[in-house]
Amino acid sequence: MLPVAVSVALPVALLSAGAAFTVRAVEVSAEGTVWVLERASDGAQASLRFAGDVAAGASMVAGTAVSVAVVGAGWVLHSAGKALAIVPSAHGRSLIYNEQVTR
What we know:
Elements: E1 7-9, E2 20-29, E3 32-39, E4 45-51, E5 65-71, E6 74-79, E7 82-88, H1 90-95
Antiparallel strand pairs: 1-4, 2-3, 2-5, 3-4, 5-6, 6-7
């Protein structure tokens, strides 16, 4: 399962198809993980916040090159052919649903 960004501090225009970013910082806390990305073309920065330890499976370190692919429900961040996370669009957020099932 891909981590889903719960908070995105960037203009949507930064996430265009084929955009190249470099990870500038990874901050982990009890509330979650924050990735700070810098766009290669102009140095514009963005931050993505993931809740809890959801992003723990996507081992991210400063200096990692990240690219963007556009999908119907948002944007997929990938590196070295591996999907790292999804940033949902407004439509994608409306499709996310989580309910605990009990018997």
